[in-house]
C-alpha cells in the first residue's frame, strides 16, 4: 500500500480485517483537507451497506467514574464471548491537556493487547460537524471492518451526553456513590437520556453506599419519562475494578437491544439520528458559508458596537447583518 491508498484499496483492507487500513480510513475522515474528505466520503458511502449491524453503546459519566475501567472489563468479557469490540473515545479535554487520552490508553492496556479489539480516540475540533461527526464516521468504518460491538466513551461535560445519545442505541450512565448527596450533581436531563444506569465502585466499604444510591436513583427515575418508550431504565451496581455485576450490566444492554428490535424502535431511532445529523450538518454548513461571505464579519462587529452603544435594537442589528450577507428577502 502506498502512502495515499486508493478508496478501493482501503475498502478491501477494511473489509478484509486490516487494522492499518481501518486506521488510515479514520485518519482520512478526520482530515481537514478537501481532497481527503472527498476520498473519505466516497469510501464511507461505498461501505454503507456493510454498516449498521453492530450494537452501539455509549458510556458517559464524570471523569473518574470508571468509564475506561468498565470498558476494559466489559470488553475483555465480550471478546471471550466471541465479539469483536471497537472502543471510540470522545474527549473534549484532550486537545487542551493531552492528558486524558494517554491515561485511557494505559488504563485499557489489557484490552488494547487483544486481537479482536480496536481502540481509537477522537481528536476534537477542526472539522465541520465536530467531534460527534468524526465519531459517527469512525463508528461506521469500524462496523464495516466487522466489529459487532461499538463502545463510545464520552466525558460527561456540557452537551456531550446529548450528542452521545444521538449516535448510540443504548446510553449507559456511570455513577459513583458519593458521600450522600448523589443526586445533586446529576442533571435530570442526563438521567432522562439514559437507557441504563450503573452505580460503579460498589466494592469494599462502598457497597452499602452504592446500594443506597441505587435506591435513590430508582426512585428519582420514577418521576422521569422513559429514555426509550416501553423500557424501564435499570439501575444496577457494579465494580469495574473487581469485575462484579458486569454480566448483569451486559445482560441489560442486550435486553434493551432486544426491546428496541422487537418494537421497531431500533430502525426508527437510527433513522431519526441520521436525520438529525443531516439537519445539524446542513445548518452548520450554511452558517459557515454565510460567515465566510465578505463583509459579514465586519457587519457583525459593527452591529455589536451599535447595540453596545445603545444606538440600534438587537432585531435591527440582526437585519443589518442579514442584509450585509445578501440574505434579506
Ligand atoms: N474501587 C474502585 N475503583 C475503580 C473502579 N472503577 C474504576 N476505578 C478507579 O477509578 C479511577 C478512574 O477510573 P477511569 O476508568 O479512568 O475513569 P473514567 O475517567 O471515567 O474513564 C481509576 O483510578 C480506577 O482504578 C471500581 O469499580 N472500584
Ligand atoms: Mg476514561
Bound molecules: guanosine-5'-diphosphate, magnesium ion
Total discrete domains: 3
Report the end-to-end length measured between terminal Cα atoms: 53 Å
The assigned CATH architecture of the largest domain is 3-Layer(aba) Sandwich
By CATH, the superfamily of the largest domain comes out as P-loop containing nucleotide triphosphate hydrolases
Order of helices and strands: HHHEHEHHHEHEHEHEHEHHHH
Whole-number radius of gyration?
22 Å
Count of extended strands: 7
Q: Find the structural class using helix and strand composition.
A: alpha/beta
Average pLDDT figure: 88
Strand content: 5-15%
CATH class of the largest domain: Alpha Beta
Q: What is the global morphology? A: globular
CATH topology of the largest domain: Rossmann fold
Low-confidence stretches: 94-104
What's the total helix number? 15
Largest sheet, in brief, is: 7 strands, parallel
* Helicity, as a percent range: 40-55%
- Major sheet strand order: 3-2-4-1-5-6-7
Secondary-structure topology with pairs:
Blueprint: H1 7-15, H2 19-30, H3 34-47, E1 55-60, H4 67-80, E2 85-90, H5 94-97, H6 99-107, H7 109-112, E3 117-122, H8 130-144, E4 149-154, H9 160-165, E5 170-175, H10 188-193, E6 196-199, H11 207-221, E7 235-237, H12 246-262, H13 265-292, H14 296-308, H15 314-324
Parallel strand pairs: 1-4, 1-5, 2-3, 2-4, 5-6, 6-7
Helix pairs in contact: 1-2, 1-3, 2-3, 2-8, 14-15
Amino acid at each position: 500500500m502506498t502512502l495515499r491508498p486508493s478508496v478501493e484499496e482501503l475498502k478491501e483492507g477494511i473489509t478484509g480485517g486490516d487494522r492499518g487500513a481501518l486506521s488510515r480510513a479514520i485518519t482520512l475522515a478526520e482530515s481537514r483537507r478537501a481532497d481527503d474528505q472527498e476520498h473519505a466520503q466516497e469510501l464511507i458511502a461505498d461501505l454503507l451497506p456493510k454498516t449498521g449491524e453492530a450494537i452501539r453503546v455509549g458510556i458517559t459519566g464524570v471523569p473518574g467514574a470508571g468509564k475506561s475501567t468498565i470498558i476494559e472489563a466489559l470488553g475483555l468479557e465480550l471478546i471471550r464471548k466471541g465479539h469483536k469490540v471497537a472502543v471510540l473515545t470522545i474527549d473534549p479535554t484532550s486537545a487542551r491537556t493531552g492528558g486524558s487520552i494517554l491515561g485511557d490508553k494505559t488504563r485499557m492496556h489489557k484490552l488494547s493487547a487483544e486481537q479482536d479489539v480496536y481502540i481509537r480516540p477522537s481528536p476534537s475540533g477542526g472539522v465541520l460537524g465536530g467531534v460527534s461527526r468524526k465519531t459517527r464516521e469512525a463508528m461506521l468504518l469500524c462496523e464495516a471492518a466487522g466489529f459487532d460491538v461499538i463502545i463510545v466513551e464520552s466525558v460527561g461535560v456540557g452537551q456531550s451526553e446529548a450528542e452521545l445519545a444521538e449516535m448510540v442505541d443504548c446510553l449507559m450512565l456511570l455513577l459513583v456513590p458519593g458521600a450522600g448527596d448523589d443526586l445533586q450533581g446529576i442533571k435530570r436531563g442526563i438521567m432522562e437520556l439514559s437507557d441504563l444506569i450503573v452505580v460503579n465502585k460498589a466494592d469494599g466499604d462502598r457497597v452499602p453506599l452504592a446500594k443506597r444510591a441505587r435506591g435513590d436513583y430508582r426512585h428519582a427515575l420514577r418521576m422521569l419519562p422513559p429514555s426509550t418508550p416501553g423500557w424501564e431504565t435499570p439501575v444496577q451496581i457494579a465494580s469495574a475494578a473487581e469485575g462484579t455485576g458486569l454480566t448483569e450490566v451486559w445482560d441489560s444492554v442486550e435486553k434493551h437491544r432486544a426491546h428496541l428490535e422487537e418494537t421497531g424502535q431500533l430502525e426508527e431511532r437510527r433513522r431519526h439520528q441520521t436525520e438529525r445529523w443531516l439537519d445539524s450538518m446542513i445548518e452548520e454548513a450554511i452558517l459557515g458559508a454565510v460567515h465566510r461571505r465578505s463583509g459579514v464579519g465586519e457587519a457583525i462587529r459593527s452591529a455589536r458596537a451599535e447595540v453596545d452603544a445603545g444606538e440600534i435594537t438587537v432585531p435591527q442589528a440582526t437585519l443589518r447583518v442579514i442584509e450585509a450577507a445578501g440574505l434579506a428577502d
